[in-house]
Amino acid sequence: MNLFRKKPIEVIVASACATEAFYDTPTLKRSLNAFQLVTLGIGVVIGAGLFSLTGKVAAEDAGPGVVFSFVVSGIACAFAGLCYAEFASAVPVAGSAYSYSYATMGELLAWIIGWDLVMEYAIGAATVAVSWSAYFVKFCKQLHIDLPIQFALSPFDVETLPNGDKIHGIANLPAAVIVVLMSLLLIRGTKESALFNTVMVAVKLMIVLLVICIGWAYMNPANHTPMIPARIFEVVKGHGEYHFGWQGIITGAGLIFFAYIGFDAVSTAAQEAKNPQRDLPIGILGSLFICTILYILFSWVITGLAHYSEFRGVVDKLAPVATALSHLPKQFHWLQQLIIPAILAGFSSVIMVLLLGQSRVFITMSQDGLLPKMFSDIHPTRHTPWKSNSLFAVVVGCAVAFLPGNSFGEMCSVGTLLAFVLVCIGVIVLRRTNPDLPRKFRCPWVPVVPIIGALLCLGMMAFLPKDTWWRLFIWMAVGLIIFFAYSRKRSKLENNGKS
Fold it and tell me: Cα(first)–Cα(last) distance of the chain, in Å?
């Protein structure tokens, strides 16, 4: 068997553009415009990273130079984003990097990337849902509502109270509930989901802009001096590390990179875009540009309000922003009360977009015969993949309810970086194999830009923790077993090209 057989571009594009009459079955409804695709990207990119990662990187790695860390990381994302934009305009299908790899590098690599993306979206949604639960408990306390903490923790988690008492969890119900609610919203309809996402994005952008506009007038210039603190050597738990200086800025850029991950989810909505060839590049690059500007401005204001040393040692993820806002005059302390609702809004849209991306990758893999047909079944009236959404609601919901919160680990998305690498390489391959393929957006300076993008992503992958790699290898091993035992025999390319 040819494990590297490729799916013809013409077949991919034709299947994406086919109507219900052609398939004699419901299809995804094209209801998203360029603006909604941009908000989709902003909805998934602006989340916990903006409110917590800024303080962490400033305190431990870059100081006020965290601004430069965002610039470096944004540039790295831009290289991958340009490659995604060309693919999205040339191959406007819901499978994202999976479909791009299928067209350029063959079925086996496509399966690996598709299987990997499913893991990344699932872990991402689960991680954010657990954080959403923690902030929901804080929000309830603001309203003087005391939720039993044991119902906001998994059975494996233990919370130590200020008096020393320990409370063992029963189930993390808020995390499970938000996953189910976002799944039900996705089942309800893409248009309704996009409207919800737009509202949530508007809420958190309003808070972000308020922090920037109000905080700008009260920054202390001394907090930005020096902009790049001198490099120091520190021994922590027997392990020596360098902090600050330009090395700290680059280290911070590697950490901050993961605050950007998610813009690729825009490409998974290709078959629901009204004009995908034009609007997908706008959605991908537009959301990246807006988020980068907001990250830079936000980090500048936060480190200007409070000295970066004030963030160090803060355990609570909310505290860095709250610490900075405490330097505002008393008449603006109401802004602190809006931070938690903004984070809840931000997390909700992140969870929804990640679950959307996950189901759209499953749809495409199912349509290619690599997964059971049920995953590509579309609701006759809602025009949504309701069976896939239901499955992920149960699986991810149970995971966040009953597995330990820290088991999901730090969201060092090695798999997403791997997808970025293959997309960058795929642009070069596609230029050589299909030079005349219509492209409404062309990545500039090929192959220079894709090569730089691939090298930057490979470099970041090389410095990821070992447990991240083990998690990837175990998941990939399971995926390969499924591929050889089930998928390759049922591949539509294998069965007389019936795709």
Answer: 17
pLDDT tens-digit series, residues 440-451? 889 999 999 999
pLDDT tens per residue across span 96-112 = 888 888 888 889 989 99
Answer whether residue 114 is part of any domain: yes
CB 418 within 8 A of CB 116: yes
pTM for this entry: 0.80
H-helix or E-strand containing 187?
helix 173-188
3-state SS assignment for residue 165: coil
State the Cα–Cα distance between residues 410 and 102, nearest whole angstrom. Answer: 29
Q: Say if 219 falls within a structural domain.
A: yes
Evaluate whether residue 14 is within a structural domain: no
Share of the chain above pLDDT 90, in %: 19
Overall size of the chain counted in residues: 499
In a domain, 10, yes or no: no
Residues 6+ apart with CB under 8 A from 359: 186, 385, 388, 389, 392
CA pair distance 415, 115, nearest whole angstrom:
10
The DSSP code sequence of 315-358 is -STTHHHHHHHTTS-GGGTHHHHHHHHHHHHHHHHHHHHHHHHH
Which residues make beta-bridge pairs with 323? Answer: none
Alpha-carbon separation of residue 232 from 176, 242, 253, 313, 359 (angstroms): 43, 6, 18, 17, 46
Instruction: Give the CATH number for residue 303.
Output: 1.20.1740.10
Q: What is the C-alpha to C-alpha distance for residues 328 and 300, in angstroms, rounded to an integer?
A: 15
Number of domains into which the chain is organized: 1
Task: Examine the pLDDT at 21 and tell me if it is beyond 60.
Answer: no
Q: What is the domain range of residue 192? A: 22-490
Four-point Cα dihedral 425, 429, 430, 436, nearest 10: 140
Tokens of 220: 């202390």
